[in-house]
Amino acid sequence: MSQRVTTVVIGAGHAGLAASHFLSERSIDHIVLERGRIANTWRRERWDSLRLLTPNWLNRLPGHPYGGPDPDGYMTAGQVADFIGDYATVTAAPVRENTTVTSVRRTDGGYQVSTGEGDLDCATVVIASGACNAPVVPECAAGVPDGITQLTPFEYRNPGSLPDGGVLVVGASASGVQIAAEVRRSGRPVVLSVGEHVRLPRTYRDRDVLWWMDATGVWAQRYDEIEDLARARRLPSPQLVGEPGTTIDLNALTGLGVEPVGRLAVIRDGAALFSGGLRNVCSLADLKMRRLLAGFDEWAGIGDDPAGFEPTRIPAVPRLRLDLRGGEITTIIWATGFRPDYRWLDVPVVDEKGRLRHDGGVVDSPGLYALGLPVLRRRRSTLLHGIEDDARFVARHLAERLTPRVVA
């Protein structure tokens, strides 16, 4: 026999717990389902040295600010998990851990959520399972010769866990550049395949660059004010690392000895072939960074040009071909992005790209909502401090839908 509850929240990360906080404020009975432990992704699917990209002073959840001794530092993955876990305790969130959702189906009264522990019938569902449930690996990975170890950021832990030899890192967003730097510092040769990327300095005019993003209102921009929303939701994470004052752009990497090459085009006959557009993609990233910094200066009333940022240095003749059978490379790390996984969702609300169809978190099925997705309602939607506005809106919309059945 199914259990009846008004709302089921899927996922006990920061987004799901923020939803729970606002549902509780409105006295809406609900259950939060989590496939593992609270903040499971931060506990199990991060490499050892990973730190949050946002400084601690910026990190907060609804009613739960950072209260530690290092406001200018950056949390480790374990500290993030503890921060979220503490929030669950403080808010007394009704979480059921180790409960995997196997399907969500429409019913006459709303939805049936099936789990390995039984079924729940509910009027509304909040999907807060995240946007990074599975790594994206290009189809050309099938052409990698036998004997080369292939990993994703979910599987990578540290350089010591890799076989001896050179490493090809594919992808130059935050994950790719951080892993490339760490592996290179261990003494291994590293080749970094670079496609579209977002270059940012860690600090700008003596302040963390994310202070500028927050203070100038860039992150507060609403989803319905963005000209190309689909593109904004696909942007790679910026080239940042959670180390005070440390910039990790391509100039920093080449200074370490990392060899940049163009975007991986194909693997054919045991060789990786790269695009010849490396100079162009780097020039575009440089241009966008300078425009952003100039915008910060305009906001601050500073007339000087952004200074101290030389163009990205690339080899005079970047390599276009890398023999994967010659022994130079023993490991490939696919830092090529992540995707959500909705295979359990038996409601036709997922597009051909595997993304939820929604309008600011209101999914294209009555009573179904989403939280924690890129630019859900604002540019900061996926960040810890960005969830509050989104979760408050979703809870209000959900409550209005339930009225007068639940809300007095």
TrEMBL record:
Q: Reply yes or no: does the keyword Oxidoreductase apply.
A: yes
User: Does the entry feature the keyword Oxidoreductase, yes or no?
Assistant: yes
Q: Which SUPFAM superfamilies match?
A: FAD/NAD(P)-binding domain
> What keywords tag this UniProt record?
Oxidoreductase
Organism ancestry:
Bacteria, Bacillati, Actinomycetota, Actinomycetes, Micromonosporales
Enumerate the GO terms in the molecular function aspect: flavin adenine dinucleotide binding; monooxygenase activity
Q: Which InterPro entries match?
A: Auxin_biosynth/cation_transpt (IPR050982), FAD/NAD-bd_sf (IPR036188)
Name this polypeptide is given: Putative flavoprotein involved in K+ transport
Q: Which Pfam families match?
A: Pyr_redox_3
